[in-house]
């Protein structure tokens, strides 16, 4: 079991307008969560409630201002991906990008090539493998981000609204892949931030509702309130 306690994160508005005012933006305040292998955790809440900040902190993209972690965060294998991923080489092709990151993750070239082909087939982007990343549509960029996370294969996946603007079949493919993946991989943890409650129902075994940087509620699959009507109240 992993636990995070008293997690707080602040941002500071450094614009001249807020010079004489309190410029502290409280993104997360004394948030407590726990999770374990096999969990798929839906993260919901209104805009600005702290979903992305929470996922980025767990994914080591941001540092917390205060927190106590029950695990060594620097050693945790995580992969954060968001809907607007920019950390690719825009002048390299899709294949070159995926090969580059596979090497970074220490995957042997032959295994990496086979995995890249499989994922490209699953997501219908084989014909884009030799296209430069810069030329891809935003939906394809998301698919490639997702592909890269699958290649890395960490313990904790952090998906931040990755299905926005994906076409129907790609959305379903991601859901389908994650459902199969979850069944086979009990030693993984998924965080799934989304405003699409049907995705949460399909994928998650528990949901945390964030309000103003705190966990307002945790709802477990199997409880009466684990339904879209209740979730929508918090969006
Ligand atoms: N880099 C930043 N600089 C300043 N403030 C930030 C930054 N990132 C987030 N914030 C602020 O922190 C709070 C939480 O933002 P966060 O992006 O985590 O919300 P969210 O729940 O992911 O929202 P959304 O549904 O719009 O994606 C907001 O008030 C936001 O304005
Ligand atoms: Mg967000």
Would you kindly provide a brief summary of this structure?
The protein has 235 residues and is α/β, with parallel strands linked by helices. Helices cover 33% and strands 26% of the residues.
Structure description:
With 235 residues, the chain is of the alpha/beta class. The chain has a single domain, classed as P-loop containing nucleotide triphosphate hydrolases (Rossmann fold, 3-Layer(aba) Sandwich), CATH 3.40.50. Helix content is 33%, strand content 26%. A hairpin with a 2-residue loop joins strand 8 and strand 9. Helix 2 packs across helix 3 and helix 2 runs parallel beside helix 4. The model has no long low-confidence stretch (mean pLDDT 90). The protein binds adenosine-5'-triphosphate and magnesium ion. Adenosine-5'-triphosphate (ATP) binds at residues 11, 25, 27, 45, 47-53.
